């Protein structure tokens, strides 16, 4: 089974429209929304109007824009002197308990805002993969369990990496699985999906592919990360007859 998830829903009205177009064309099956992004409310309205509000997870954001809670604005680890988010990955391998609590508060508020706008949330991931930082992941996992968000994106387990990096990712994914938040068997992006054996697209295996639909200057649909036309990129992917969303996984488990 294959989930194609578009990150960054809510980032801008242009990105929102690109994601909506991708849904309408059957190019994607899932998206994750940024609760503190400028076009969040536009995204919620668009999803309801276009009929994919039940295929939305949360794209937790600790790295860009304004936070929703006041406490974290005072943290120089997570915010600049103006109170804007700007956490840098790979710079803090340990966090004081007070900082972890600030993360939990911000994560909870982002989840609450989505639900107040009628987005029930099928799963979670994060902007710039910040949830794959160990101490942040522990805070995120705790809040997802407390607030009944059912799944959390794995750390990339397809891309070639050093033994140390593979071990770190495996341990992180073990934590996600141990806490009952594992929904997929593999996670990767467009650069790496070709490395997956064909049998990984079987009915018994769930793969999440991350994409970033956007518009080029000429109005054509591209992937913002790859900076290439979107449809041709996806045409290289071995696709099952039908894409699934994280919401569909609930029914599979049941």
Automatic annotation (TrEMBL):
Signal peptide: none annotated. Gene3D superfamilies: Glycoside hydrolase/deacetylase (3.20.20.370). Keywords: Carbohydrate metabolism, Hydrolase, Magnesium, Metal-binding. It holds the Pfam family YdjC. It comes from the Bacteria. Its cofactor is Mg(2+). One of its GO terms (molecular function) is hydrolase activity. InterPro entries: Glyco_hydro/deAcase_b/a-brl, YdjC-like. GO terms for biological process: carbohydrate metabolic process. This is ChbG/HpnK family deacetylase. It comes from Noviherbaspirillum galbum.
């Amino acid at each position: 089974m294959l989930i194609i998830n578009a990150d960054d829903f809510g980032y801008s009205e242009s990105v929102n429209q690109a994601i909506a177009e991708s849904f309408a064309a059957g190019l994607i099956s899932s998206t994750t929304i940024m609760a503190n992004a400028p076009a969040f409310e536009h995204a919620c309205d668009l999803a309801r109007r276009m009929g994919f509000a039940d295929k939305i997870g949360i794209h937790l954001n600790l790295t860009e824009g304004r936070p929703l809670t006041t406490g974290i604005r005072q943290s120089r680890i997570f915010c600049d002197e103006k109170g804007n988010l700007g956490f840098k990955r790979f710079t803090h391998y340990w966090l004081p308990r007070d900082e972890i609590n600030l993360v939990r508060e911000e994560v909870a508020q982002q989840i609450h805002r989505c639900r107040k706008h009628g987005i029930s949330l099928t799963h979670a991931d994060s902007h710039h993969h910040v949830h794959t930082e160990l101490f942040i992941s522990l805070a995120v996992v705790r809040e997802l369990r407390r607030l009944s968000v059912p799944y959390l994106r794995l750390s990339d387990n397809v891309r070639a990496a050093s033994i140390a990096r593979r071990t770190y990712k495996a341990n992180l994914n073990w934590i996600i699985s141990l806490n009952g938040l594992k929904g997929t068997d593999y996670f990767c992006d467009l650069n790496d999906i070709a490395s997956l054996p064909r049998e990984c697209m079987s009915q018994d295996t769930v793969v999440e592919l991350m994409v970033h639909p956007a518009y080029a200057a000429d109005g054509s649909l591209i992937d913002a990360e790859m900076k290439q036309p979107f449809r041709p990129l996806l045409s290289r992917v071995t696709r099952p007859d039908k894409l699934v969303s994280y919401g569909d996984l609930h029914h599979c488990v049941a």
